[in-house]
Specification:
By secondary structure, the chain is mainly α. It is built from six helices and no strands. Helices cover 61% and strands 0% of the residues.
Length: 119
């Protein structure tokens, strides 16, 4: 019955709001769960990679966590994204691998900014 007859409640659908995660990142996560290969190069910036890492941690999907951490580490810390990285540290759990990585990145960013000002 449900495949062949129209049911107004199904046609209207239900919208589920997912907070603090970009739509693109959440779609990547869902696609991965349903078997699509995850292309980490599509994570263009630290907040996107961070969001995906948080989802992987929250749902205990361990196979990609190290690769996502490596992707975060590979991002360049610049004047434009340093404050964003510092803010992401504040969103981390008390202890997590990603927090350590982000703290190291933010320290490098602040250090670089100070060095540039002194030059």
């Amino acid at each position: 019955k449900m495949f062949f007859e129209s049911d107004n409640s199904r046609e209207q659908g239900t919208v589920i709001e997912v907070k603090n995660i970009e739509e693109k990142v959440f779609r990547m996560f869902l696609n991965h769960i349903y078997g699509k290969e995850l292309i980490l190069e599509e994570l263009a910036d630290v907040p996107s990679a961070f969001g995906l890492f948080q989802l992987m941690e929250q749902y205990d999907i361990v196979e990609l966590k190290e690769q996502i951490l490596a992707r975060i580490k590979s991002q360049k810390v610049e004047k434009e994204n340093c404050v964003t990285i510092v803010n992401l540290v504040g969103q981390c759990e008390e202890y997590s691998e990603v927090k350590d990585v982000l703290q190291g990145m933010s320290a490098l960013g602040v250090q670089g900014a100070i060095w540039q000002e002194q030059s």
